[in-house]
Design brief:
Distance between the termini: 44 Å
Largest sheet: 5 strands, parallel
Number of helices: 5
Oligomer: single chain
Shape: globular
């Protein structure tokens, strides 16, 4: 619990890169689990189509409709404010995300973020996903 000398975010700020039009539950549950485990803030970086459904599940998660937009930096600019990153839940099988995900991983490592990869990330990266 937060005390008089603590503020929101000191117990962990987690980012989840995932979510697509078809799969909105996986990134939500990944983010919500980080809150249940004691984290203070959970950010979900998703496609614009997934943003409103994910946000409607709970006011506790912060959604950013940054995936598959014009600039890869729309997601990466948040990395200095995070403590850890999860990449992949609910991304589905959209191979058009390959370059964006490679950029996101590179920026996450540049920022020293611990990263957890979900199976959807590996499937997209393999280019042989069924």
């Amino acid at each position: 619990p937060l005390g008089a000398i603590r503020y929101k975010g000191q117990n962990g700020k987690i980012g989840v890169v995932g979510g697509s039009k078809e799969y909105t539950g996986a990134p939500f549950y990944a983010a919500q689990s980080s809150l249940y485990a004691g984290g203070d803030l959970a950010h979900i970086f998703c496609t614009p189509e997934a943003s409103i459904p994910i946000k409607s599940y709970s006011p506790e998660v912060i959604t950013h409709p940054t995936l598959m937009t014009k600039s890869f930096d729309n997601t990466a600019k948040w990395f200095p404010a995070l403590h850890a990153l999860v990449i992949g839940p609910g991304l589905g099988r959209d191979e058009s995300l390959i370059q964006e995900l490679q950029y996101i991983v590179e920026k996450a490592f540049e920022n020293g973020l611990p990263v957890v990869f979900d199976a959807d990330f590996f499937c997209i990266q393999s280019s042989n996903c069924k």
